[in-house]
Amino acid sequence: MHGSEGKDALHSTPEEDPRPKLMPRVMGSLAIVGLMIGLMIGRLTTPDPVELQQVETAADGVVVWFNSEPKLHGEHIDGTVALLFDAHGKADSGQLKVNEKDVNWRVRKTDGGLLLNLVAARPLRGEWKGEKADGRWRLEIHLQEQ
């Protein structure tokens, strides 16, 4: 029986190809370039994060300004008005008068975004309406006693 060693190159085992294998490198490079281009396009198309810019007191409520329209969830909980905004911003607090009675408001950060609480000694009802104004988003919150 004959072995497969190459005495005169007349055997059934092919010789080792001395050229480097380029196909895995080409496919890997294409995958990396595609990933980088996808990340750049994704970064360019994502909108700016919504940010709370300022809170102003009005005659019968509060006006809240954002750089763009936030997602909003509002509720009346035990006589208070609570609004949860999907936005970034800083914590703040203040006081206003509704029907000559004090109402305290407070903005604080939560896991879901920013929470605006409006609290008074008597139960409150609130109505809110948002609109685009001056290139920003303006949310008016009108309060009344129950």
TrEMBL record:
Region Disordered, residue ranges: 1-23
Stretches with biased composition (Basic and acidic residues): 1-20
Highest rank taxon of the organism: Bacteria
Name of the featured protein: Copper resistance protein CopC
